């Protein structure tokens, strides 16, 4: 009798659970939870695990071409009243940089304080570097121009870390960040490669202060000068500034406790995906943790879509990235090769509801060594702009299929395999 009673109770309990699960309202609630779970998981992780803040009052504008970015940036520089702070991997010594420095010199005459920092390795690695004489002539205009980690003997100890960030802050009211440096090829493209595709952002709201804090830390590290007070962080002192309604998180990768911040961002985004992961990255040789996260996503049925450039500005890169992409395609991911120029964008979209754009490549140098900054955008509306961009770029790309790798020459197959072996140092 006891056994029979136990079985009866168990049967009733199972029937109740089935009724609850089949209830339309309950199904709707479950679906809503699933729909919001990626955003909620990311928000919780960033605030509780990474101790980062979400700012809710932001206005954001995307730029997918250099012309539009520089038009808006130059106009904001013209409107500056107090200060202009710039942090770039490099200023290429060409016409757009020349125009920018002329404008900055004019703002100095108007009483605006201009501080600008660029990376020594980034400068020397481009084919139109700022030479020391030009550096001095720019400083003579009143622009406080400094070089991050000048490369000196024995040279090798200056390879890492480098400052790969792109940040501009003007009067504490507007900031620019993303993947674009200052160079003509963002507008004109590169001979033999074609148009240069990239992503950048103009931000107003609380995230401006987070970007400015990053600049202030690296400026103090290089020059010893502290940047603080109401003049530089007016919002923190109660000054009313233009705002929007988008949630953003600024993720800084630097030495110390934030050294794994962007690697952790990428892994957590991929792990939180319920439906899809879409990404574009120019130097796609992911570290082990990121690569394993992508494989797990494919294995659990997530629609993983990856867009890589068919061409690159670095000779070894295309074959290495194609090798990794081909392996993920065989695993079940969908991989496109973009042929409309060089795609330098650093974009990841999860479930079409949140995304990240920034300076960080998906390689060991960016994820383990260099100073980088990414913006996590917890806004379905803004994310849809990036989804639309991603889908539009497929018009200039082809999807690789099984057997693709055998169409490559033996030399390119070897270069791709060898480049993949170098993942820990690329």
How helix-rich are the residues, as a percent range?
A: 40-55%
* CATH class (first level) name of the largest domain: Alpha Beta
Integer average pLDDT: 88
Class from helix and strand fractions: alpha/beta
Main beta sheet: 15 strands, mixed
Tell me how many strands there are: 17
Q: How many helices in DSSP terms? A: 14
Strand composition percent? 15-25%
What name goes with the CATH superfamily of the largest domain? Endonuclease Chain A
Structure description:
There is one protein chain. This protein is of the alpha/beta class and 426 residues long. Helices cover 43% and strands 21% of the residues. A 15-stranded mixed sheet has the order 4-3-2-5-6-8-1-9-16-15-14-10-11-12-17, with helices on both faces. Strands 7-13 form a two-stranded parallel sheet. Helix 2 (24-49) packs antiparallel against helix 9 (261-272), helix 3 (66-78) packs parallel to helix 4 and helix 11 (317-331) packs across helix 14 (410-421). The longest helix has 26 residues, at 24-49.
